[in-house]
Design a protein that fits this description.
Subcellular location: Cell membrane
InterPro entries: Poly_Biosynth_Transport, Polysacc_synth
Organism: Gelidibacter salicanalis
Number of strands: 0
Distance between the termini: 12 Å
Radius of gyration: 21 Å
Order of helices and strands: HHHHHHHHHHHHHHH
Protein name: Flippase
Pfam family, one: Polysacc_synt
Structural class: mainly alpha
Helix content: over 70%
Amino acid sequence: MTSVFSKRDFSATKWFTLEKILQLITGVFIIPKIFSALGTVDIGKLKFVESVLGMFTPLFFLGLSAICIREIVFHPERYHRILATAFYLRLMSWGVIFLGIIIYFGVVENSALKGLYLMIAFGYLFKLTDVFEYYLLAKKWTKIIFISKITSLGIIVGLQYYGVTQEFDMYYFALLIILDFLIQGLIYIIILKHKKLLFFKQWKFSKRLAAALLRMSFPLIISNSLIMFYITIDELFLKYYHGDHANGIFATVQFLVIILSWNIGFSIINALYPSLAESYQTHTGLYHQKLKVLFKIMFILGLSIAVFYNLFGDFILDAFFSEAYAEAKDPLLIFCWAPLIIFIGMIYEKHLINTNNLQKNVYRFGLGCVTNLALCYLLIPIWQVNGAAIAVLISHFMTNIAYMLMDSTGRSDLRLILKVK
């Protein structure tokens, strides 16, 4: 089934998957301790701040990741200029947003969480170094990414454990988020400089390339903004109607499904994307076969995630979390089906990138956003966290499956993926 992908393709996937498995193992060890130590209210506050700032991540990242990877695959000789232009574009975007946040809290709002907002927003400056991942992914050098992330993971987990034993507050754990960004970026720079692949003297900003990149990534900026909005809607409604405790419960569900399992599938798709881009450019038949194989892999993984949490979800919450998190059992059983749906959408998005049809991303995420907003308004006041889980699950279905069924080209793409020879 997997023979359409080369050994090198799956070697890239191997490192990504191993990274996520190690994150899963360490996450099971340390994250429940952090959640239990801080309690549902402080976790709810921390995750709420992360989610609000997360609404700005499309502007921090400018949708450049997939576009730059594709452009480096298509034009490898231009990688220095592509990376430099992407870096400076993101730096300017971060500067404008961070200045806006400072002005907002200085003039308009005097929130008790002001320091937390500013700390995490400042940390996105160090996240700029992930532009080096664009080149590494395009070249399928995922082992370097693995080394960087696992080294950082080991340091951060050690510091997190120390924070738990010393009973530090949520500001300490927010600071570790920033440190994680910084460590990964420094490792990328050191390795690429050692391999003589990074020459800052050649980093020149190109206005023409910048305009082209932004023109290509603009639909992704819009669609990613819609994604972040409709993901954050639930937490806004939960905080308004039920407070930080409810957000803490929902954060637990998201941690178990997204961080521990969903990210594995996301990594596999990202690792195999350069292979898809290459085949789309050179061999259409092989490209279609790769889409089919990737769909089968992700369907099996998504179904496995759902079955796993249906069988062991209650045990995990009882064994690793304090009694305050017992309320997460029912929403976990609902939300664990989300990966099965969204993996289809992830593959479809990569297809849209290859075919330069990213405007459809805007339409489908707009549909999901409207659906989630309406369902949150109807369900969360009555069913609390269960209502949030139902609203997100249905909105994912509308975004990733219903839109494809409503769009004529999408239906053809779906038939192509599902066709069995």
